[in-house]
Design goal:
Elements lengths: L4 H10 L1 E4 L5 H17 L13 H4 L3 E2 L6 H7 L2 H11 L4 E8 L14 H4 L6 E7 L10 E3 L12 E2 L9 E2 L9 E2 L7 E5 L4 E3 L11 E7 L5 E2 L6 E2 L5 E2 L2 E2 L4 E9 L2 E10 L11
Parallel strand pairs: 12-15
Antiparallel strand pairs: 1-9, 2-3, 3-11, 4-9, 4-11, 5-8, 5-10, 6-7, 13-14, 16-17
The structure holds 2-oxoglutaric acid.
The site of 2-oxoglutaric acid has 13 residues, from β4, β10 and β11.
Length: 280
């Protein structure tokens, strides 16, 4: 599926665009089986969930599998992802992260957040390629996005409700900024700007997983990214020398400007312990 001018302008205007059916069903099914095998035989987890009654204890997401798994590396630098990313960004990106989410029935979601909070790309921002491996809808905890929030700064975080989110941090949004659900079929890929507010709610289905494969990239003019995301790769898989960005610093808070909520960089990130940082 080729990138269209509409995709490019939608990404610029809304901070996201969807490539329907970018990967075919056979490829996606192979990937799903591969990660079920990884879950059983080769588990390297991002989150250490010790409560055995939590569905995520058995199916924790897999972080940075491209560093030791060729299938994940090949997916991350796949020609189709590169074509789309290069078209919507205007320049070839660098690749820094992969994650696989199983999100089994009953699993909590990931509270609303901005990826750039974790990646700290400088200058510029990051971009995500989020591929549905299962059909994703509101019942099994699809992705929710807040279109247009890619133009706001990285917001200060507050505590998330950990009854519904497996991460501790979230961002607050004023009225008028409503998260909308994205219904996706296996093989659909959503590309979104690292500043865009997004997240997901619990999987309330009785028996449907909501697996997703995710890649994070940094925009070509960037010079530094947070330490956890090194090594930085070119889209041919080779390593590139990159700076390490600092954590913490100013963050956005909402203020009223002529009756409109506007996010301005007037807050200071005060958390001593970045509990979920580097592991979004
Ligand atoms: O898949 C999800 O539930 C959330 C994923 C996400 O927010 C992310 O990749 O940054």
């Amino acid at each position: 599926m080729p990138v269209s001018a509409t995709n490019i302008s939608e990404f610029a205007a809304q901070g996201l665009t969807m490539a329907r059916g970018l990967f075919n069903l056979d490829e996606v099914e192979q990937l799903r089986r591969h990660f079920l095998w990884i879950n059983k035989n080769h588990r390297r987890v991002s989150d250490n969930i010790t409560d055995e009654s939590d569905p995520l204890a058995k199916y924790p997401r897999v972080g940075q599998p491209h560093r030791w798994d060729e299938t994940s590396l090949n997916w991350m630098i796949d020609r189709r992802l590169n074509e789309w990313l290069t078209a919507i960004l205007g320049r070839e990106p660098y690749a820094v992260q992969t994650m696989f989410y199983y999100k089994p029935p009953g699993a909590r979601g990931q509270a609303l957040h901005q990826d750039q909070f974790y990646l700290r790309v400088e200058p510029g921002t990051c971009v995500a390629a989020w591929m549905a491996v299962d059909r994703c809808d509101e019942e099994n905890g699809c992705l929710f996005v807040v279109p247009g929030t890619h133009n706001i700064p990285v917001l200060c975080t507050v505590d998330a409700d950990t009854d519904v989110s497996f991460v501790n941090d979230t961002v607050e949004l004023p009225p008028g900024f409503e998260p909308i659900p994205l219904i996706m079929e296996p093989g659909d890929v959503l590309f979104f700007n690292g500043q865009l507010v997004h997240g997901s709610y619990p999987n309330t289905s009785a028996d449907r997983f909501r697996c997703a494969m995710i890649g994070h990239y940094i925009v070509g003019e960037a010079e530094a990214v947070a330490k956890w995301y090194h090594p930085v790769l070119r889209m041919d898989g080779s390593e590139v020398d990159f700076g390490v960005s600092e954590q913490g610093g100013p963050c956005g808070v909402w203020v009223d400007r002529d009756g409109e909520p506007v996010a301005v960089l007037e807050g200071i990130e005060t958390r001593q312990e970045h509990r979920s940082r580097g592991r979004d």
